[in-house]
Amino acid sequence: MPAVNTETIHTDRLTLLPLQAEHAHEMAAVLSDPGLHTFIGGAPDTAQALHARYERWAAGSPNPAESWCNWVIQLRDETCLTGTVQATVTTDDRGAAAEIAWVVGTPWQRRGIAGEAAQGLVTWLRKHHPVHTVIAHIHPDHEASAAVATAAGLTPTHHRHDGEIMWQLVIS
Predict the structure, then answer these.
(1) What's this model's pTM, rounded to 2 decimal places?
(2) Strand pairing of 131-138 and 95-104?
(3) Is residue 4 part of a domain?
(4) Which of 71, 74, 91, 97 could cross-link 133 (Cys pair, CB 3.0–4.6 Å)?
(5) In CATH, what number is assigned to the domain containing residue 66?
């Protein structure tokens, strides 16, 4: 599978910018609320830890059959970063599939930002890197993420992974 190149994505209110290590300082503040880790575990990273992680992500997957695509979410009217979206694109016997995820900082939640970003990501994947399936794994009690997945066209399945429900969009 050729590498999937991350590019800027525009939606009505957002610009999804390819993630760079230089975003770490601002993103450390955006993601500083420990409550963001309620369903995923862990704790907020320091700017230094995020910088190191973002450098690894920007360098790409060491597995040539897998592409890491990561964006920061910029709210254009406020010219600030509000969160991230990501897609891991892999290939199987049917073609390409993508696993997606998102996080939006607490001050920007309940404004439809995650849903709009996830929709923009799924639209980009469908148009520019045809995938047959898009999946996300969501904690069964995380109603906000379930709403985001629904907005992006995914539906819950009966499959579980590490206690999370697999949501899926099959594209014909």
Answers:
(1) 0.94
(2) parallel
(3) no
(4) 97
(5) 3.40.630.30
